[in-house]
Amino acid sequence: MRIYAIDLSRDINDEFFSNLALFTGNERPVSKRITEITLELFQNIRRYSATLANAKLEIVKDQSGYACRSVNTIASSAVTALTETIRHINTLDRNALKSMHTKILARSLQTKSNNPGLGLYRIALRSHARLNASFTQLDADRFELSLYVNLAAPQ
Description:
The protein is α+β, with helices and mostly antiparallel strands. It has one domain: 2-Layer Sandwich (Heat Shock Protein 90). The longest helix has 21 residues. It has a five-stranded antiparallel β-sheet. It is globular and about 40 Å long. Strand 2 and strand 3 form a beta hairpin. The mean pLDDT is 86.
């Protein structure tokens, strides 16, 4: 198994894309999907993490293919809504995912605000796979969110 750990203390830049190309062996379709998913995970971490300390973003390659994994701290108040959103996303087929994504995007454009959850729909659409999340309570106010996305073959 190989792991490409992304430095979250810096913005994603040309070095990230160069390293990603080396990691994927320039497999263009794979590299594009990984980039799209990684950027969404990166944005989720930067926007919604209680802190960047101990946050991780990794791309994993093993015999079965690629996966993206993010770990970050979130407020305990976000756990229920996040769990429900992920559970709902995992029940949708591709057409329903597209429809929900479009509705959420239109709503966020009308309100001109960030819409938590939009990135999760994008990740599910790009990965063609279920989102796997686990939560570990750190203290009364914080949980650690671990989100794992397997990059299944495009359908």
